Prior knowledge:
Low-confidence stretches: none
Strand content: 5-15%
Helix content: 40-55%
Mean pLDDT: 88
Shape: globular
Number of helices: 7
Largest sheet: 2 strands, antiparallel
Number of domains: 1
Amino acid sequence: MKQQGWRRVVKGICDRVVALCLLILVSPLWVWIVVWIRRDSPGPALYRQTRAGLAGKPFTIYKFRSMVQNADAVTRERLAALTDLTDFVFQEPDDPRITRSGRFLRRTSMDELPQLLNIVKGDLSLVGPRPEVAEIVEKYTPEQRRRLCVQQGVTGWAQVNGRSELTLSATLRYDLEYVERWSLLFDLRILWRTVRVVWTGRGAY
């Protein structure tokens, strides 16, 4: 595994420095987003969920809430009935649970901004496979579990190759390719492509 030793240390330092700088820059924007979410629909502005991080270790991920309260109940029902990861898709373009503010936040990826806190805490990296919920991780094959061998990230190789348009199995293939190809230069390439993808809003809903 390449993501070890000095490479992992450098990646961790760069992650935290960039995340701290971005937190300072976007802090005024956070106030506006929080006010908009609270006015748009009942419930807290910050959404918390348990995800599987490096080596499957659970942690609490932060996002700006983009759905109505208790929207997770529907997702849990779908996950409980899930037997095949092949064609499962988490997000659908016309999901009625998504709020008005949530549609904008998702299209611009602003709902992910609180994950800068996860990076500072060491839960996430800027780049890596997106962390999944335990119900999905429990269904991984031994080969698919290899995606947990690297630090999970805010953006990744799958996200710049389709985002929400990808099925879960397609996302896993991109994640495993990332594990094999990982380098600091590859991370920079993904970050550059992330800027382009976010700018166009392709595959975000």
